[in-house]
Amino acid sequence: MLEPRPVKLTQPAPPRAVLCFFQDVINRLRRKGRLKVIGRLKSEIGPNPLYILEENGQNLLVAHPGVGAPLSAGFLEEIIALGVNRFIAAGGCGVIDHSINAGHPLILTGAVRDEGVSYHYLPPGREVSASPAAVAALQAALKSAGMPYTLAKAWTTDGIYRETVNRRATRLAEGCQVVEMEAAAFFAVAQFRGVTFGELVYGGDLVVPEGWDSRAWHKRADDRERIFWLAVQACLHL
């Protein structure tokens, strides 16, 4: 009954996009004149700019994907409607595995579907995978940069305050190392629409029975900038 319609742009969208969760990184790039606004997505929280970034002689679309599976999936749909078909997301995650240090890069290979959006796009199932081509592009980018990384499965949940001890234990047994709110929805929308999608995150807060530790994850400016530019390089590989 309702399909996403392309918003008006001042120039055509390039076929590749980096979805950056770090508004601080986006703001710095704007101040440096690296980002040019070509349009805006809209929601009740206000306009969400769509930017062009030129890197190595190529244009990429850059946008904030919103927070939480429903909003992020909706914005992804609207960007796909612009003709974009290759995506890398750059973000952070909670860590449920003690061995993952704060700031450590992780390439998400798949996600346990503990949210609602993915079930509107794919048949019921426990997990959904990232696009293999996007995972390979991310691996190539991190190897080229000499950056250690981990291939990881995410636990995607809608209930950030219902990450209980028993649920964490179950997700660890399923092979999850991190927890976040969007990956399963991203991967499901991408499969449904036939586009390529990968996600790079860094280890953030520690979510363990001994007690939550923020590890000042949101203040790691250098890590956030690094994750963004690694995502850019991976997107250029696609």
Automatic annotation (TrEMBL):
Top-level enzyme category: transferase
Domain of life: Bacteria
The reaction(s) this protein catalyses: uridine + phosphate = alpha-D-ribose 1-phosphate + uracil
Gene Ontology terms for molecular function: purine-nucleoside phosphorylase activity; uridine phosphorylase activity
Matches recorded under InterPro entries: Nucleoside_phosphorylase_d, Nucleoside_phosphorylase_sf
Domain Nucleoside phosphorylase: 17-205
EC numbers: 2.4.2.3
Gene Ontology biological process terms in this record: purine nucleoside catabolic process
GO CC term, one of those recorded: cytosol
PANTHER family: FI09636P-RELATED, URIDINE PHOSPHORYLASE
UniProt protein name: Uridine phosphorylase
